[in-house]
Amino acid sequence: MAKIEGFRVKNFKALKEITLGRLWNLQDEQPLTSMTAVIGKNGVGKSTLFDAFGFLADCLRSGVEEACYSRGRGGFRSILSQGQTGPIEFEVYYKEDGNARPITYELAISLDQTDRPFVLKERLRQRRKNQKHGWPFSFLVLNSGSGVAWKGDQYGTRIDESKDELDLVKLMESIRSGKDFEESKETEIVELEDKRKLGIATLGSLKQHPRISAFRRFIEGWYLSYFTPDAARSLPMAGPQKHLNIHGDNLGNVVQFIEREHPERFKNILKRIAEKIPGVEKIDTEKTNDGRLLLRFNDQGFKDPFFAQNMSDGTLKVFAYLLLLEDPSPPPFLCIEEPENGIYHKLLESLAAEFREHATGRKGGSQVFVTTHQPYFIDGLNPDEVWILEKGKDGFSQIRRASKIPSIKHLVEEGLPLGGLWYSDYLNLR
Q1: Quick one: pLDDT band at residue 181, thresholds 50, 70, 90?
Q2: 3-class DSSP state for residue 214?
Q3: pLDDT above 60 (res 343)
Q4: Where are the domains of the chain?
Q5: pTM (2 decimals)?
Q6: Of the N and C termini of the chain, which has fewer Cβ atoms inside 10 Å?
Q7: Residues 97, 381, 52, 226, Cα dihedral to 10°
């Protein structure tokens, strides 16, 4: 399972600069866990951190200019950290699997002379086989849409940022001239037509760039939940669908698919939801005369079923999350903002356990990233899995791992719940 071990964002709204986990140049830090939760008060930047992942995914999907305006962001200047001149930067440090060599992706976005956002810099880097220490080799280097990509899964060039030693223009001229035959065999000059599109979006479709392709597929596979109960109450056209979409308006279609193609998984979902929602003994679908789909909930105390339109927000959310966790081909990265909204507080610890089990309990699960302000949810996690986000004196967000706070691990080992410690202000950064 591909996994993010570290993430850095700079100059994005309230996130002037924060880092979570391990980066290529921060090897002493512990990587992100398979289950990660970010906690904090209202207004400290939790939604912004969630949107940082969403923005990066949107950049790949539709280009940086459209991403700056998507989902109500308001354009580049609206998302640029107040008082900063840019660029907006992201860094993702990830592994394709547990034994793979880590790959770092770096992205910088700025404004061009026409005041439109464009991709200023883009880089992918990885250590070579058997290379244990030192600077990793860059295998994609783009400045303003122009640069060099190294083919295959072995080659690259070593760049020492402290010396700014790479003359990209000179390297491109050398490759074009064929003076360095060996370098020319390994490399490909890149000249993107649209500087507002990511290089990985174009190069990731080419078989000669397997590492770029793998990273592109990884980002494309991210699932960021924008689920709303009202969307789940809609009446879609009938027809099975494999995956729940980000808004949840195809909930009934996914039920059709899972019930038909994976009946044992569906039985497991029903069993688990019955444990959480008393009375629910059966869930199925009904096709209307005009070809639309009704989602039915059968309560053991009533003869006639209830339809999704009559079910509570909490019931629909719990059901949707369980469907996500039982997806036969789950996304590599599952990101959910405040899953607790509308859910009975005593269900939250067990819901956290469901997410955790999915992330860590079986091969092929998803890495799960959650933002929350509910202590009951945090009670189901350990200090390595929890990060505290607070607002600093300068107005920008600061973040720290709960396990970095002195005495927290000891208190949890003594039996004190982590959410209770947060509620009692033991997890404050200051």
Answers
A1: very low
A2: helix
A3: yes
A4: 3-31+48-222, 224-381
A5: 0.90
A6: C
A7: 100
